[in-house]
Each structure stands twice: as C-alpha cells, then as structure tokens.
Design brief:
With about 190 residues, the chain is mainly α. The chain has 2 domains: about 15-90, lambda repressor-like DNA-binding domains (434 Repressor (Amino-terminal Domain)); about 105-190, no CATH class. Helix content is about 70%, strand content about 0%. The longest helix is centred in the middle third of the chain and has 40 residues, at about 90-130. About 15% of the residues are buried.
Length: about 190
Amino acid sequence: MVEVNDNSGDHWRMASPRTRDELIGANLALLREAKGYRQSDLAERLQELGLSQMHQNTISRIEKGERPLRLSEAEDIAKALGMPLWNLTAHREVARVSVLLQEIYDARRTLSRAALTYIEQLGRLRMEYDAMDAETQALFNAQDFPGVDVMLRWFETGNDPASVATEVIRDIQDALAKHAEQSQKAEAAHDAQ
C-alpha cells in the first residue's frame, strides 16, 4: 500500500490512479473495521439498506486497491457505515482521527441515553419508595446492594434526579482528569529516559 503525503493538503496532487485506489481501499478497511464489520457484514448492510449490490469479494478487491470504487458505491458505503464520504478519500491519519472522533461521538450519545435512563429510573424508584410504608422503607434501606447509597443520598438531600446525574458526571470527569494527569506524568517520565 502506498500512502501519499505531500504536505500540501492536496492528497491527490501527486497520487497515481493506482495509489488513489489503494488509499481509498485502505480507508474503507479502516472505517469498516472501526464499525466492527467484516467484509461480508458490510455487503449485507448495503443490501439491507437497498443500496449497492456488492459482494464480499468485491469489497475485498476494493480494499486491496485492485478495483476502483465508483462514486455511487462510495456514497452508499459511507451511508452504510454512518460516516461522511470524505473519510474514504482522506489521508490515512485524518481517517484514523475521524474514526476516533466518531467513536467519541457514539460514546457521548450512549452516555447521554444512559443518563436519561438513569434519571427516569431514579424518578420511578422515588415514586415506588414514597408509596412504601415506613416499615417497608426501613427494610429497603437496610439492603446491601449497589446504588442504595446514591438513592438514599438523593432522597436525603431532596435533589432532583438531574442533580444526582450531574454528580455522577462530575465523578466521571474527576476520574478522567486524574487519568490524564497520570498519563502526562508517565509520558514525562518516559521522555526523561
């Protein structure tokens, strides 16, 4: 595989058609693998969406740079992978960063959904808890299972579920900051060697 890097931002300027096909193929493989798809999975996904009728061996040939990718096929593949079309033609490094950004976006979306579910479940739990008589509440409070401490802290402070979720997010941010600090120290120690 040949990667073109002329440092001008125009990654096609010095590339031969063969090199362009290899670059697109390499990026296709990277993007496909980032989604956790095998070549056959991508072919099935394209068919499920009613897009290009492409077989696994065709995808393999494109990824090897043995077969050029038509624009209509590239558009369909980008749609099937949930990625912008330009990722297929970007420098390899740009495509890798784009994949990481997509993974971060997906994780953020998953975290947002989880936070909403968390808030909804806390609200339901509060309604169930409030419906209990005092004796049942005392029995419940004595249970030793994960989450009771968070729930009781929320009940004691009278905070709404969003405030409790915000506390959890702050805990996550603190843990990330601590990890970043440890990583910087480890990197500095490594550079010092």
